[in-house]
Amino acid sequence: MLKGNSTMISSYDAKDIQVLEGLEAVRRRPGMYVGGTDIKALHHLIYEVVDNSIDEALAGACDRIEIVIHPDSSVTVRDNGRGIPVDLHPQLNKPALEVVMTVLHAGGKFGSGGYKVSGGLHGVGVSAVNALSEWCRVEVRRDGKIHAQEYRRGYPQGPVEVIGKTSKDDTGTSTTFKYDPEIFKGDLEYRFETLVQRFREMAFVTRGVTIYLLDERSDREMTFFFEGGITSFVRYLNRNREVLHPVVHVEKEVDGITVDAAIQYTDAFAESIYSFANTINTVDGGTHLTGLRAAVTRTINDYARRSGLLKDSDPNFTGDDTREGLTAIISIKHPEPQFESQTKVKLMNPEVQTLAQQIIGEAFSTFLEETPSAGKAIVSKCLTSARARDAARKARDLVSRKSARESLTLPGKLADCSERNPEKTELYIVEGDSAGGSAKQGRDRHFQAILPLRGKILNTERARLDKILANNEVKALISALGTGIGESFDISGLRYGRVIIMTDADVDGSHIRTLLLTFFFRYMPQLIEEGHLYIAQPPLYRIEHKKKVQYVYSDAEKDRILRELGVTDGQVDGKVTLQRYKGLGEMNPEQLWETTMDPANRTLLLVTIEDAAEADRTFDMLMGSAVPPRKRFITTHAREVRNLDI
To answer: Is 508 a catalytic residue?
Structure first.
């Protein structure tokens, strides 16, 4: 038995076992309950409260949910469900409302009476939100009375009180909370667009429920109601694409588990597949998604063999072949879902995979048999995809062999840095030789590398991987990053902790930035998901007054500074010098370093995939083949934005 130095060993007795009372555990370890303390976790607070209202809708007791963001960033979620019970809990001798709001693992979702299916089966949702809120107030309309209770950081500030009367028919719960700045630190704000996407998805997968969102900070509002359910969702995602056949929809309940799926193929090259469990978007998929994918691949292979579209000598289609251009939604309702974590990003129930594969397989097979024209179009697309994938594999093998032979020789245009620790390095992707020259001279050679790209890289939205890999600019980019691409992508090979897109502040620069974002979104999404991709923010103007220089990043800021300097009607006199930067190449190396590359002064925008569905739609609209929606978008937003950007 090995013994350590006794002075190094701390005591481990009964007195050392910490018992965190009530909701203190949530405040101590918020990551376990809402996934962290970042912007994503901040939005998760709203989702947890709304999920309770959705559960009421799934129980058939609610058909309207309202979410209001107030000017002070407090949020109200109101529904017309049954209202949280307010009578005394038999074991705890407290009102049920107080128990639900202050006790972990308390709720009506664990027995078999209150809810048939529910999204909130970890039982920590609304109590965790209460614990992480500076203050919270709940009002319950039930049995003709309005009951209320207030809390501060999870603790009741008084008993549950009756504060008014209402009609017997007016029932529901209204929860208002303000996130705690002691927990969620920094400049965090709710994003209207992020919430719009989430609630649109919820409305799609919860047929017949109206979800109303109002942002009082900007006076924006949105109402969602979809009678068509996930069939409408698929049509929405594909509205800017050429579809190969009508939406295939199946909904079936077996042993209390409902599988609801919709499938449609388009002329696109990427897949758009989204999965939900009890209305919650399981962004990491799970057994239901595995079942859907297996059903699609097996059904297409079986049909292609039976109909003679695949010869005996041909290999079966792979999953990648059958998912090209596929838009699919699977939404399951399960009485006892098992999620990987409290944030519910992955479904784990093993029986769901078999059930989903069986139900979807039968429905899709019947559709292909009854609609041979659609079957032929789908198989033809899979054949083209398989050939292109084979060509891409050969191109990738060639790159791999060449890399191994040349000891991973980096592209000649890359000006590398001397630091070898990826956590400390950054790669600037810049357009053109002039900007590349300024960046190379102005950078800190110790940790900043520069990769200039000539012209516009290939539009990766409209090209397959084999063509993309043949493009010299893309090859240089892949080689510089060191991660590989597609199936051979490996994030551990990334040579730079930060990858920064730095383009001119004009239409061409914006287009190049969009093309690069499309490339990363399609073929290296992990770079974005793990927070490695950024966009540099070069200044638009340089203002000099009495030898004092200010760099300005927007027209509004420029106008404000000029007003402060006494310049009216934009007429700059001799005392003030105003310079407009049309491109990075117009800045000398010192200016570029000072404004855009110096970590002490620069502003970088982190690129995030907050919602794959919305990003997918926007990329497809701006970069796809359908012209009318792109024209509508540009016409609508032309006055709002200087550059068309994502």
So the answer is: yes
